[in-house]
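INTERNAL AUDIT FORM
Audit reference: QA-55
Scope: verify that the stored structure record matches its stored sequence.
Auditor: D.O.
Record contents follow.
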Amino acid sequence: MKKSIIFESLIICLLMLLIPISSSIEIQLTNKIDDNKISDVDSNSLKLNSNDKIVQSKKSTHVIIPCDGDKDFYALIAGCSKYEDSWNNLPRPPLKPFPESTMKYVYDVLIDSSNWDEDNIILLLNEEATRQNIVDNLAYMGSIIDGDDIFLFSWTGHGTQVDDLDGDDGDGFDEAICPYDTTKNKNGELLNILTDDELDSYFSLIGAEGLFLMFESCFSGGLVDVEIQQGFSFVDVDDDRRVVVMSTLPDKSGFGMFDIGWPMLMLYGMAFSDNSCDTNLDGWISAEEAFTFVDETYPIIENNFYMSLLNFSIKLSVIIVFLNTYKFLKKLGVDLGLRIVLSTLVTGYAYIIYQNDSFKKLMMEYMEMLHEIYGLENNPNMCDDYLGELNIIKIE
């Protein structure tokens, strides 16, 4: 009987192994970076600060455009859960991609806000979120936005790393987002990605008063590099007047949640919908105030997610306990009635063990260990190069 319980406990462990597969929103498209890489990122920091060892500082590339006296708000929101190559879908086949509604959390808030005009918001999801469409619309935003305006960019989907060919990244890698039409050629080279250098060049053409850049993708923390091992600073998406929020640290893959899809995007949507996030009581919810909400709330969301997975696995394992016990007793020639009674008793015993707080704690620790093994770790972080608060939502 005890051997059976131990066996079912192992079943739960195996089910936990499926977590990064069944719920992952990121499928790494290139080889994993060197685990020995040094990172200067403080995961609890509200800002990724520069380090004294950096010997070459990045010069601002932010274009200066005259103001017209009117503050308008513009956004380009893009995301993919369904890809041209279905193997890249999020999550992978045979599971269905996250629905488009899970990529519209922030969009829905913006169009309902008094300071946003729906005509100024471009939404590119799945088939529309190609590299060319993203590039063309960023260029378009650069042509219509002036120095009074605010610009918001959001990407949800795959992120990856590629070799840094121009040597401007001290870690040897450029981070990139992977639009709908991302693919590999025969040599294994990724095509149609958008690297941090390219994104920076397009953002630099947008002469807004402030830019709020949101990334929920693997390695998104690396879009703002603070690696110092080779004595460089970097041409990444951070610059004057920009607030950049990311879902992972530089060397980590992210993961999604089967019930809500994109957890960070959902939380930013919640933050911009909650008037209590206006902590300085100025009548606006800023990018910085939204990040504080996300940073404080995400651990609760993640814990609830893993508890729900654990409880589901326990229920499934209890069923397996009953079936295996019944099968074992049948081989011993035990009568049908007695088989059912004994199988029920063993199942009840297993259920009591699985519901024990110590057992659940052990399983949660096991999931944390899986995080390290798979390199999966959602971790909200922010780089703030905007002077003051970058206001996004006006409170009515």
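Auditor finding: record pair retrieved intact. The longest strand covers residues 73-79.
Action required: none
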